[in-house]
Specification:
With 812 residues, the protein is mostly beta strands. It has 4 helices and 46 strands. It is a multi-pass membrane protein.
Length: 812
């Protein structure tokens, strides 16, 4: 993970235009850490260090909120406007890939949730997030994003890598505590319109219309040297959100918590450098379900979700005469659980007195546990020379062992019930998941080698990763090649081109879901043996027309998803201005979707998801801060443009194609009256076509005042809206076609700002801050979910309005 630091931000032209000689490039005075609000930009991606994390105005202290304004990075914030109390991070898409193809790392170790990733919270199924840990960014040393020219040492993605480094202890003792909070009374109310006004009731919602909330974040880090050979650091974060939700016309106390704990131990043991890291994270969320068709909430619909992770990493490095030997051993256990009032979910149609319908029950008790053991050993050889050509060779092995297990403590039932006019009761589409365990495992084994060749102004990076993936029973080869020409030999005028292939990581959730199917039985058209029996869930009390046992499916029938890229980057420094221009062409191929085949009785896997994306980016920044009105000024300007075609969503649910369990077999669509294949549609993503971000940050050290600003522009997202399903004759055969229409959402300009004061009279041990996101309180429609031209089945969502955060921190 090599990074060439280019301290960001160009607001110099603004300062020069307004203040002329008062703004003069400062090459003498050092740039204080507290003023380094720039992010690091280079050909291999993006590096944001701790001091930049601290000053950026954001809402939740999550990776998604930290990264969301960077070009080529998109997050699923479509419903965030009505869920202001949420603590969980949004899913992140890199290089326009589906979110589950983002590789989340902590300290260079993959920590992805691959058993419940990306799934929706549904009856009998756990919702999950691709990131196994929801770490508070206040506990991070740095965040690195790699979305192009990624070294062959790293795999398990087709989008990119997000690597978070937890805070490390230093030689000096440090103790820091911070508190941050916001309250809905300080912030804008969610914006509703005629299409989603029912969320306030809520009829169609899931009990999470969050117009009232209070969020409180506590953060503590203590660390330092124990003796000359040992350093110890401890970090603790507690995030709380009180959310009194609407419950049958009243308010019911609900809430979320997110707890993070880690211990870092660094040691020098003779010739060995050792690092121990113990990490823990737990997110809890209390919910209830509303009746789907009435304004009431069923008393048995409460449940609680939790996602937790505990892990350990040991790193041992040693310098030998021939080079450096790096070793990593890690283990992570990720657990998703749900505790519910009841183990059934019923939809009821009543024809006894006309027509009435309703629903009741909950999503059931369920837990799933994922265990991942990882071993990586790399030898970095000392530089070798053949004449004037320098070679830097590394070779390594990477082994990951995955296993997962799920448990139903009791039988779980989902069914539709009919009360007929004659008093008889029928159960239709009655699926029972029997109490029991289901298991799956999938291992990966990789060998990789890299060679960095340097000759005069030319640098060539050659890499190859060979990997065997048990889940797909395939061995794949991923070449990685990039080349740079340094026109000035000092990294101030450099052109880089690259071509690489990346393969998906393990998708263990597919195998686990397939095994879960084996516990399920489906009964059709069941009539109660005794009249009026509409309560029993005992199959012996009904006579059913058919009973069918589900079957597990074999994942070896699928190919491993992959992506190919071509990249071009140009870095140039002229005077105090640094420019980076980038282009990335990324093909996503063989993406998986899962469709249940009722005739065969099991899930079918299809390698039918693909996209082609052209991603352009341009950044201007300053190399050194400017002297400005007695202080220092820095900034950057980011421009980004994304043009993508591919497998767009054919569902009425916004971007559901990013949910692996919500696949589609539809190959043909009628988009705005034109018949085409799905691969010719606008690719499903969270990206706006065009984005622009301007950061301007000022610091008056003598007064302890810092002012950070970020102005962001997003063009309206292009969505496809489902209308209906039709049959058309294609190549002589009647074929199912999804009829869609395109829609362009509204463009958006927001201004985020943060003012911090560190009083010099208090020996700079206290800091008070006020942060306001979306200061102008601009809200526009950013997504629509549902069936077009039918407001009863459509929800519109807006971006979040103004939010005010207060924070205080103290340090010893």
């Amino acid at each position: 993970m090599k990074s060439t630091i280019l301290p960001s931000l160009l607001a110099a032209s603004i300062g020069l235009a307004l203040y002329g000689p008062q703004a003069v490039a400062n090459d003498v005075l050092p740039v204080l850490a507290e003023t380094e609000t720039q992010s690091v930009d280079q050909a291999d991606g993006l590096l944001i260090e701790r001091e930049q994390i601290k000053v950026k105005p954001v809402n939740n202290s999550s990776l998604s909120q930290l990264l969301k304004t960077q070009p080529g990075i998109a997050i699923n914030d479509a419903t965030g406007s009505v869920r202001g109390g949420d603590l969980a991070p949004e899913e992140i898409s890199l290089a326009n890939a589906r979110p589950h193809q983002t590789n989340y790392m902590i300290g260079g170790v993959t920590t992805n949730n691959i058993s419940t990733f990306g799934a929706n919270d549904t009856a009998g199924g756990l919702g999950g997030h691709t990131s196994g840990y929801f770490f508070d960014t206040e506990l991070l040393e740095s965040v690195e994003v790699m979305d192009r020219n990624v070294c062959a040492e790293y795999g398990s993605f087709t989008g990119g890598i997000i690597n978070a480094e937890l805070r490390k202890p230093t030689d000096e003792f440090t103790a820091e505590y911070s508190f941050k909070m916001t309250d809905s009374d300080w912030n804008s109310d969610p914006t509703l319109d005629e299409d989603n006004g029912d969320l306030e009731s809520p009829v169609w919602g899931d009990g999470r219309y969050q117009d009232q909330y209070q969020k409180r974040f506590h953060n503590l880090f203590v660390g330092g040297a124990i003796n000359e050979n040992h350093k110890l650091g401890i970090g603790i974060s507690l995030q709380e959100s009180d959310i009194p939700l609407i419950y049958n016309g009243e308010r019911k106390d609900q809430g979320q918590t997110n707890t993070n704990v880690f211990i870092n131990h660094l040691a020098t043991l003779g010739a060995w450098e050792m690092s121990n890291e113990l990490r823990f994270s737990e997110f809890t969320d209390k919910r209830f379900l509303n009746d789907t068709f009435t304004d009431e909430t069923d008393e048995f619909s409460d449940y609680e979700n939790s996602s937790s992770g505990i892990g350990y990493t040991l790193k041992l490095d040693r310098e030998f005469a021939a080079g450096m030997w790096r070793n990593t051993v890690a283990f992570d256990q990720l657990k998703n659980e749900r505790s519910a009032d009841v183990n059934y979910f019923k939809t009821h149609f009543d024809y006894r007195t006309g027509f009435d319908m309703g629903s009741e029950g909950s999503y059931g008790n369920l837990d799933e546990t994922q265990n991942s053991s990882k071993l990586k050993s790399v030898f970095d050889f000392n530089a070798l020379y053949t004449g004037s050509i320098r070679h830097q060779v590394s070779m390594g092995v990477d082994v990951t062992l995955h296993s997962a297990e799920g448990t139903y403590q009791e039988d779980f039932h989902t069914f539709t019930q009919y009360s007929n006019a004659d008093g008889t009761v029928e159960l239709d589409s009655w699926t029972t998941t029997a109490a029991g365990d289901y298991k799956a495992d999938a291992n990966q084994y990789a060998l990789f080698a890299t060679d960095t060749i340097e000759w005069n102004k030319l640098t060539v990076n050659l890499g190859l990763r060979a990997e065997h993936m048990e889940l797909f029973d395939q061995t794949v080869l991923a070449p990685r090649i990039s080349s740079s020409w340094d026109f000035e030999t000092d990294n101030t005028n450099r052109l880089t081109v690259g071509a690489s292939r990346y393969y998906s990581g393990s998708l263990l959730g597919w195998a686990l879901s397939a095994e879960k199917r084996a516990l399920q039985t489906n009964r059709q058209d069941c009539v109660a043996v005794s009249d009026g029996n509409n309560v029993s869930l005992d199959p012996n009390d009904y006579s059913c027309e058919s009973t069918k046992q589900y079957q597990a499916t074999d994942l070896n029938q699928a190919d491993t998803p992959y992506s190919d890229e071509i990249s071009l980057n140009y870095d140039l420094q002229f005077g105090n201005v640094v420019m980076n221009a980038g282009y990335l062409y990324r093909q996503q191929r063989d993406g998986l979707s899962s469709i249940y085949n009722s005739e065969l009785g099991y899930d079918e896997l299809h390698n039918n998801m693909e996209s082609d994306s052209n991603i352009y980016s341009l950044r201007f920044s300053n190399a050194d801060d400017y002297v400005f009105l007695g202080g220092k000024l820095g900034g950057y300007l980011d421009l980004g443009y994304v043009d993508a075609k591919g497998s767009g969503s054919t569902s009425s649910v916004y971007d559901s194609q990013n949910d692996l369990n919500g696949g589609s077999s539809t190959e043909w669509v009628m988009l705005d009256g034109e018949l085409m294949r799905r691969t010719e549609m606008e690719a499903g993503s969270y990206n706006s076509d065009f984005t622009a971000g301007l950061a301007i940050n000022a610091n008056w050290e003598q007064y302890g005042v810092m002012w950070s600003n970020f102005i962001n522009y997003e063009s309206g997202r292009n969505l496809t809206l489902f209308q209906r399903q039709e049959s058309h004759e294609i190549d002589g055969e009647m074929t199912g076609v999804a009829v869609m229409s395109s829609a362009e959402m509204e463009s958006l300009v927001t201004w985020d700002t943060k003012v911090s004061w560190t009083p010099t009279m208090a020996d700079e041990r206290f800091t008070l801050s006020v942060s306001v996101t979306n200061l102008l309180d601009k809200q526009v429609k950013i997504s629509t979910s549902g069936i077009e031209d039918n407001s009863k089945f459509t929800d519109d969502y807006y971006n979040q309005g103004r939010q005010v955060w207060l924070s205080v921190s103290a340090r010893l």
